[in-house]
Amino acid sequence: MEINIQANEHFIDYLNNWDKRFYYIVGGYGSSKSYHTALKLVLKAIQEKRRILVVRSVYRTIKESCFSLLKGIISNYNLNSFFSYTLNPLHIRCRNGSEFIFMGLDDSEKLKSIDNVDMIWIEECSEVSYNAFNELNGRLRALGKDLHIFLTNNPVSVNNWTYERFIKKAGIDEEELYQNRIITTDDTYYHHSVVEDNAFVTDEYIKQLKNFETYDIERYRIAYQGRFGIVGERVFNNIQKDTDTEVQEIVKELSKYGLGNLYDGLDYGFSISYNALVRMAIDRENNILYVYDELYNKNLITSELIGAMRYIKQKHREIIADNARPETTEEIRRAGFKIINCEKGAGSVLDGLQKLKSFYKIIVSDKCINTYRELTELCHEKDKNGNYLEDKFTLDPHTVDAMRYGLEKYKATTFKNGEIRKPLGV
């Protein structure tokens, strides 16, 4: 069977290489690294019987990323007659016996049950832990097969374990990787890419990535240049404050397009921690998040919290709440609010922070004093060597947690998924 492959030129060597155990595929947003990894695995699954495990830090993110990408490639290459799918659980099977198994590392017990896999794809590998990577590596032990792990990610931080393991300890010169683009060692294939390597993204998309140079230089370094980031003291560099009058006028305009631009999040507290309800609106065209209202209090029992929320007139508008207190969420729901629990999991904090950082600007109404304070004061803690830790913080930011929950369903695909526009005819 012949398949007419259409791929970006910079990825052809990667598609054809099967010599290494580890494939460290790193680059900027929209460079098509995830697309070509999915394509590589589909082609191998057709050629020979394979048992492929596809992993992300949080299971709920897999369906609209890896699963959707694999299914789209199968469809675009007219290979549907060779494959079958199930959605619960997510599973893809080829008629030659190959199968794709999907798993989130937020359910560590399921990982222990996985056996006899011969290939693993870890998407957004920087979001999983080093211990999880080692556990996955140990699970790769199928007999009679050449074994491979594919790690795809954006170069988020030099403090991340992926940099320590695959760059620093492996003796890889970072600048040499940027210059040569492809490097191989005894057991690892390294591939670096940027958005210009993807012939199938628009000029407008590239322009949007370049705009980060004005709004967030660190994001520009990672997203456009595809270079490893450096974790600084402050978590956010995209925060601004404006008058409540100005913000409310803009939110009013955004509200005309329906509830799709409006998001509410609620973090629970009591005696020490604060309850924090944050109300937001998104200007999708300009990639700006507006914070226009907050509720911030403590020492309230549930009935008192409900009373404090009575000013919210749009009861049909969904609130996504902290899942640590499902009984509180249920009481609020019975009081007439449309409210659900968030889905926390391994990597969900960093994933939510990255989503907030992806906005050019977060503009906060000057009446939301607690939200503005926490966004501007939130800093990374340091380790014993003085390096900033990307997952440790100097304060417990209740409003930021509420914002993460509220934006849980918002798909920030505008920048990270430039490769979603697949090669024509594929």
Summarize this entry quickly.
The protein has 426 residues and is an alpha/beta fold. The chain has 17 helices and 18 strands.
What can you tell me about this protein's structure?
The model is unreliable at 413-426 (pLDDT under 50). The chain starts with 11 loop residues before the first helix and ends in a 10-residue tail after the last helix. A nine-stranded mixed β-sheet has the order 3-4-5-2-6-7-1-9-8, with helices on both faces. It is of the alpha/beta class and 426 residues long. The chain is globular and about 65 Å long. Helix 14 (348-357) crosses helix 16 (398-406). The chain has helices at 12-16, 33-47, 63-76, 108-113, 130-139, 161-168, 174-180, 203-210, 212-215, 217-223, 244-255, 302-308, 326-334, 348-357, 369-377, 398-406, 413-416, and strands at residues 22-27, 51-56, 83-87, 90-94, 99-104, 119-123, 148-153, 182-184, 188-193, 239-242, 262-267, 275-283, 288-297, 319-321, 339-341, 361-365, 380-382, 388-393.
List the helices and strands and how they pair.
Blueprint: H1 12-16, E1 22-27, H2 33-47, E2 51-56, H3 63-76, E3 83-87, E4 90-94, E5 99-104, H4 108-113, E6 119-123, H5 130-139, E7 148-153, H6 161-168, H7 174-180, E8 182-184, E9 188-193, H8 203-210, H9 212-215, H10 217-223, E10 239-242, H11 244-255, E11 262-267, E12 275-283, E13 288-297, H12 302-308, E14 319-321, H13 326-334, E15 339-341, H14 348-357, E16 361-365, H15 369-377, E17 380-382, E18 388-393, H16 398-406, H17 413-416
Parallel strand pairs: 1-7, 1-9, 2-5, 2-6, 6-7, 10-16, 11-14, 13-16, 14-15
Antiparallel strand pairs: 3-4, 4-5, 8-9, 11-12, 12-13, 17-18
